[in-house]
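User: hey, got a sec? need 3-oxoacyl-[acyl-carrier-protein] synthase folded
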Amino acid sequence: MHTLSTHPCPTRFTPTPDPTRLPRTRFRPSKHNFSPRASAVTTEAPKRETDPKKRVVVTGMGLVSVFGNDPDVFYEKLLEGLSGITRIDRFDPEKFPTRFGGQIRGFSGEGYIDGKNDRRLDDCLRYCLVAGKKAVDNAHLGADITSKIDKTRSGVLVGTGMGGLSAFSDAVQALIDKGHRKISPFFIPYTITNMASALLAIDLGLMGPNYSISTACATSNYCFYAAANHIRRGEADVMIAGGTEAAIVPIGLGGFVACRALSQRNDDPQTASRPWDKDRDGFVMGEGAGILVLESLEHAMKRDAPIIAEYLGGAVNCDAYHMTDPRSDGLGVSSCIKKGLEDAGVSPEEVNYINAHATSTVTGDLAEVNAIRQVFKNPSGIKMNGTKSMIGHCLGASGGLEAIATIKACTTGWLHPTINQFNVEPSIEFDTVPNQKQQHEVNVAISNSFGFGGHNSVVVFSPFKP
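Assistant: Yep! Here you go:
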């Protein structure tokens, strides 16, 4: 979620030379050192995983979004190019310079959360429980999940960037207004970031790996990467992974306003999120949850699971540069993409679709494209779009929702448009699927997510081929 000023880090440290330190000398191998001849060095073509115990497939998808809770309906709305951005009415936003977002309305946990918990849980947790259980249903695991899988080898890894922000804000207000005795006993459990994974596992009876990752807006992809590696290492057969977020509350909106990160296009909010457009002025807050069921191919085939797509690999790293700004040279992002492709066993030439991070910020959009260009030398065969143009930036949940959009592109052969492309930056050489959906047979797709702190993450998907 690289979003803020274009100024370099004011605290960048330049070390002072140490006069007592000996100068470095270049290593020269002696006749006793083995040094292979250059002619003997060969570059092997990347190889995809073939072991069915280590191949990771997607068998279920679940979400909560501004377009509802059904992945098919969600993607249909995206293909139509509809905007889910409206004026906020959960609270009075009039005093804020930004008064709109991708606010979810009419949400209900009925059938997925018992009535008492549905009334008192933070929305961050409610979204996770509904999206997670829908993903499990979609994977044909359903209510009798523990009779179909080994629950000790089935885990949950759902992260959040902000945690239970409403629970936190309410507790602080109670402390200020009435003192500590009026703080809810649920304040801590509903605020900490690991509780989404914990509650989902408790409800499903899953006893495998269980924790959360919080890397701001890169959270979901970090979770997919870590969850898949549990399967690859033989530590789990099934992992439920993704992200959840519910930060459209006064303190959340106010915080990002203070960061000067948000668009202020209050007169026309549906066109406010405009990735790569020359008139973009900041991102738009969104919310929701996006969760996948990841499974080893061997396990999925044994239980005759519906295999939707294949997770080929991924990578995570850090810019090590600035709290909010991207590296101007794109090194962090480009190296993350390269490592992700290496982990997936695919070459850059095989990739023909990118679901970009594309937040609609002045510096972030171009920085991402510059980094992508370093990896993919020929942009002519690659299409790239921005899901956030329609649903806003869902922070820790954005990668989860965008992974579902990426997978739907793989399975349907249709790419959703990047809407609000009125005057695209001339330096963007990629086809950004402007304003209208496009038919496109996806070979290999990558989905990018980046977060404050310089956290970079890339996941790689493809249509499943036995």
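Quick note: The chain has a mean pLDDT of 91. Let me know if you need anything else on 3-oxoacyl-[acyl-carrier-protein] synthase.
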